[in-house]
Amino acid sequence: MDRLIDDLLKKGLGNFIDRSRDALIWDDEIYQKCSREEDKAEEKCLDMGLTERQEKTMKQYVSDIRATDHRYADLSYLAGVKDTVGMLVFLDMVKGIDQ
Question: 16-25: long-range contacts (C-beta < 8 A, 24 or more apart)?
């Protein structure tokens, strides 16, 4: 099963994930609200009169959090794909895939 996921990623599933997830998040009011609040909070942090070093550290921290969240979202999506394929195999609706 993990080999299937690896093959799908090599064949461009990552781009498919981004397109389908982006289509959902742009229409999701809760996500949009949270995103705006996150941006405002980041602005407030950067307007605190931080030293150049502190500001650089804060920007790096925010960047790292966003990268981690993005990776988590990708892995969650892949877990859903894996679970779906596993269920289809279990129900004998898909053949030739080892679980």
Answer: 17/74, 17/77, 17/78, 21/73, 21/77
What is the residue-wise DSSP string for 32-66?
Answer: HHHHHHHHHHHHHHHTS---HHHHHHHHHHHHHHH
pTM, entire model: 0.70
Is the separation of the CB atoms in 13 and 79 below 8 Å? no
Split the chain (99 residues) into runs of 10 and give each run's mean pLDDT. 70 79 90 94 90 93 92 87 87 76
Structure tokens that stand for 42 in this block: 């980041």
Q: Three-class SS of residue 94?
A: coil
Each domain of the chain, given as residue ranges in start order, spans 2-90
What's the DSSP call for residue 96? S
